[in-house]
Amino acid sequence: MTPFGEKVRELRRKKSIALKDMAADLNVSSAYLSALEHGHRGRPSAGFVLQVCGYLGVIWDDAEELKQLAELSHPRVTIDTAGLSPNATLLANRLAQQIKSLDDQTILRLLEELQ
Fold first, then answer.
1. Among 45, 7, 41, which residue's Cα sits nearest to residue 26?
2. Angle (CA) 72 61 111, round 5°
3. Are residues 67 and 112 in the same domain?
4. For a pLDDT cut of 90, what percent of the chain falls above it?
């Protein structure tokens, strides 16, 4: 699940909106919205993010957070280390190899370190 998908699902459920109803109202398929919520689709377009914000009644800071989450929600990331140090390339490769085995506590610790 991506950060954007998780947040959309949380907001949708708080408002007791069924996925199929939200999808129909946004003129997308239920399969697309489900895939977006579960991180099986790429980053949503800026226009779709605005549609979701309007539909869910998300404004100001919450809308900005949703936009930022969408930017950070590409499920398949490529890291270009050309021109960087060997250690940067090593870090990118190690992360790619081991990310599936990291627990949430370790991931949160790494995120804090990179902030």
1. 45
2. 35
3. no
4. 80
Same domain, 44 and 10: yes
Taking only the tens place, the pLDDT of each residue in 26-45 is 999 999 999 999 988 888 99
Domain tally for the chain?
2
**Whole-structure pTM value:** 0.71
Cα–Cα dist 18/37, whole Å? 13
Residues 63 and 96 in one domain: no
Range of the domain at 32: 3-71
List of long-range contacts for 98-102, beta carbons under 8 Å, 24+ apart: none
In this structure, are residues 66 and 7 in contact, taking their beta carbons and an 8 Å threshold? Answer: yes
* CB-CB contact of 69 with 46 (8 Å): no
Confidence category of residue 95, pLDDT binned at 50, 70, 90: very high
Q: Which CATH number fits the domain that encloses residue 22?
A: 1.10.260.40
